[in-house]
Amino acid sequence: MTENWITTGLDFCVVIKTVKSKRISMSNTKLEYSDLWDHLKPLRILVAVFLLNIAIYPAFSDDSSFRSDLASDYTEFVYWLKKASDEKKIPGAAVAIVSKEEVKYLQTWGIRENNTSKLVTPESIFRIASMSKTFAGTSAAMLVERDLQSWDAKLTDIFPSLILGNRTSSREITLRHIASQSTGLMPHSYSNLLDDGVVYGKIKQKFHEIPTVCAPGKCYGYQNVVFSLIGDIVEESTGETYGNFVDQEIFKPLGMTTATVGLDAFERESNVTTPHRLVRGNWRSTTNNPAYYSVAPASGVNASILDMAIWVRANLGAFPDIMSPAFLSTVHEPVIKTPHGNYFNRWANLDDAYYGLGWRIFDYDGMQVVHHGGGVRGFRSEMAFVPELNIGMVLLFNAASTLANDVVPQFLDNLNK
Asked: What angle do CA 267, 269, 275 make, to 5 degrees?
């Protein structure tokens, strides 16, 4: 597998490299946009890469509980990942290791689509699947922070005509329950319809038929469709579409210049990765499922490894003017315990696991880890960070490979060596 780009600390040489690669890639592509924002895209990427390496030291960085003494050698983890990816013949991949101050390591390898020469670059766009939920949880928290909503606001008060679940106890479902996967409704309600191509707007008409399995807040039940009510709440509270809110309040302020929401945005980009599925032992390109884009809060974000490196840094505290320490503490706080049976619950050194507000939180070998993974047709992704150690990792595959299940424990085990 071809190694495309690697760094152990971004600098201006890398910035120049990035801009050159962008210039080359655009030379064979017709300009599709006429507005100023798109004309300035190479400059936007230049600025984004530069911002990735600006050291930001919030007031709490001198706290004695804040540890940054971690060894900066990630060779063993990266060697394992590259070797395992080669053995699995993963078409394309991107990985970043970050602290809140900087990108410590970033590498892409492979191709965007099998049987082509289109290399994965730092700006190549992947579907991040369920890692989109972390942006939804943050969006909900922004509504609460701005007094546009309350965590305890009942969905029936926000949408009087909405009926959720087939028991009266489900009338008590709140914004917190939605964001923390603790609605008490049957897990994965109607995800099968998404698999069949049915879009969110049609599925909503069946919300009253969802079985209620426990009172709200009493049990964990992972959702894609019901979780996406966060998008409706954002639109009801702000008058903006969910995609526009995320773009204006998260992507642009953080400098995530290639991140977008939705299928149309994905298809407009030229530097996108193609999904792949395993057929008779070989990776073959496949199509995107538009229905999963209709549940944008659950799975609608598209992003590059540059974007996701910024996102992990933001959640480590790099941008306190946008996401304050108190804000991050809220979204990273455990809310509901998750049962055994999920792939991460089988990690050998994992103890208790919880869902927060769009994030998973678990104890792993004495470390508190904040995490989310993602998987949608032809893509897999994982990200995890340890606030106490000021370190995080994000991985993107353009293949639906189970190898992604092993990436987080391999990374975390490497931290304790």
From this structure: 60
